[in-house]
């Protein structure tokens, strides 16, 4: 589904050039749960931005479902992004003055559904992350773990092709982190949801079916975790 071939990314600021991704190649197949690890500043988020259709300024090829996406215009790219990807971030990125229902509903409204049609789908998404009773609360009334559950519900509500999670447990304690990982695992096993997750935490890598390490701008598969 995701095929990255010899991708290079260089940030240029003033006189300075930073070659972050160097001939990065890897694949993610449907149903996989891929972990990406590597030191801070090694380029993990840079890579996430590319495979999440947030950035098409790179050298090399990214094929999604067999199609090159780099030369699409911004409108087409955001259309692909809205349909194909569910994002989960370290800091949850919920809208504080929207209720849980309104936050989770957003991707469906972007997809053109009327509010009447979203009701049942939103509730099902919240049920699958275990907090249907929080539907009318605001994010500020929730714990960190509950906020991340809402963010996961929002990420899966429109049935994306894959979930991109950039350090989804980075702001959570270790017990809550494991609960969140169990949710990803359940979605991966029961719904065959494809997950690509960046993590700093080796102990969480065991939830993944494949772990890739970013080393000197390159991705290496590691089996010895
Ligand atoms: N927009 C940008 N312009 C210039 N340099 C950038 C930009 N974004 C990131 N960088 C640099 O590129 C390198 C890789 O950044 P990136 O955010 O991909 O790292 P990361 O592996 O996600 O790190 P962390 O684990 O801390 O999140 C860093 O040295 C960073 O300073
Ligand atoms: Mg990062």
Task: Kindly describe this structure.
The protein has helices at about 45-50, 75-85, 100-110, 115-130, 145-155, 175-190, and strands spanning about 1-15, 15-30, 35-40, 60-65, 65-70, 85-90, 160-165, 195-200, 210-215, 220. With about 220 residues, the protein is α/β, with parallel strands linked by helices. The chain has a domain at about 30-40 and about 75-220: P-loop containing nucleotide triphosphate hydrolases (Rossmann fold), CATH 3.40.50.300. Strands 6-7-8-3-9-10 form a 6-stranded mixed sheet, with helices on both faces. A 4-stranded antiparallel sheet has the order 2-1-4-5, with helices on one face. The longest helix has 17 residues, at about 175-190. The model has no long low-confidence stretch (mean pLDDT about 95). The structure holds adenosine-5'-triphosphate (ATP) and magnesium ion.
Count of separate DSSP helical elements:
6
Q: Measured on Cα atoms, how large is the radius of gyration?
A: 17 Å
Q: Helicity, in percent?
A: 25-40%
How would you spell out the order of helices and strands? Answer: EEEHEEHEHHHEHEEE
According to CATH, the fold-level topology of the domain at 32-39 and 74-222 is: Rossmann fold
Q: Compute the average pLDDT.
A: 94
CATH homologous superfamily annotation of the domain at 32-39 and 74-222: P-loop containing nucleotide triphosphate hydrolases
Got a strand count? 10
Can you list the strand order of the major beta sheet? 6-7-8-3-9-10
Q: What is the overall shape?
A: globular
Low-confidence stretches: none
Name of the CATH class of the domain at 32-39 and 74-222: Alpha Beta
Which ligands are bound?
A: adenosine-5'-triphosphate, magnesium ion
By secondary-structure content and strand pairing, the structural class works out as alpha/beta
The largest pleated sheet is described as:
6 strands, mixed
Percent of residues in β-strands: 25-35%
CATH architecture of the domain at 32-39 and 74-222: 3-Layer(aba) Sandwich
Cα(first) to Cα(last) distance is 25 Å
